[in-house]
Design goal:
four-stranded mixed sheet; binds zinc ion; OB fold (Dihydrolipoamide Acetyltransferase, E2P); five-stranded mixed beta barrel; elongated; 1 helix; 16 strands; mainly beta; 2 domains; single chain; about 190 residues
């Protein structure tokens, strides 16, 4: 009986019951003996017959300093790689709502000297990176397990395979360089 109640999704203003049946809990208001939902969510009734509306939408993952994210390289400028964020590592099923664009500055790519960003990233590469500035959304790929985890051949768009420190295209034999993550090609994010 109670189970049924728990599966009901309501919107603000929906009638959820009467004051005779329930007392108003979180997200519920009483008006002349009738109880109404104040927010979108699931109706829930506890043992004390208190009726509540629990938010149905999970809060998006919070991006803070140290959060490891996965994103796709959208653009390569002279000093920064522009990355659109796809997910937070460990919370892949939850999409990032906003903001979505982050940058990796040329000085945060790896510990050694970077001559050209084009030698470290390719457009459409998937990268794993750590947030170093949550406000400006700046990322770093300096650590060993950070960097490109999936890359495509610049010529034929096949997925590149790792061969030592370089990536090779098995189709057209093209060789490319990247700041490769230790996890490259493992499919684990
Ligand atoms: Zn190729």
């Amino acid at each position: 009986m109670e189970k049924n109640k728990n599966e009901t999704i309501v919107i603000p203003g929906d009638f959820v019951g009467t004051s005779e049946e329930f007392t108003a809990g979180n997200g519920v208001c009483a008006e002349e003996g009738n109880l109404f939902a104040l927010q979108i969510g699931e109706v829930s009734v506890n043992e004390q017959r208190e009726i509540s509306v629990l938010p149905a939408v999970e809060t998006p993952p919070v991006i803070k300093e140290g959060t490891v994210v996965v994103g796709r390289v959208e653009d390569l400028k002279e000093m920064v790689a522009v990355v659109s964020l796809a997910c937070v590592v460990g919370k892949e099923q939850r999409e990032i709502v906003a903001p979505t664009q982050a940058v990796i500055h040329i000085s945060n790519v790896k510990t050694g000297y970077v001559n050209e960003l084009q030698q470290e990233f390719g457009v459409l590469d998937l990268v794993k990176a750590k947030v170093i500035d949550a406000k400006a959304l700046r990322l770093s790929t300096e650590e060993r397990d950070l960097g490109v985890i999936k890359a495509m051949c610049g010529k034929c768009k096949s997925e590149l395979k790792r061969k030592g420190n370089v990536l090779v295209c098995e189709r057209c034999r093209r060789e490319e360089t990247r700041k490769i993550s230790y996890d490259y090609g493992k499919g684990v994010v």
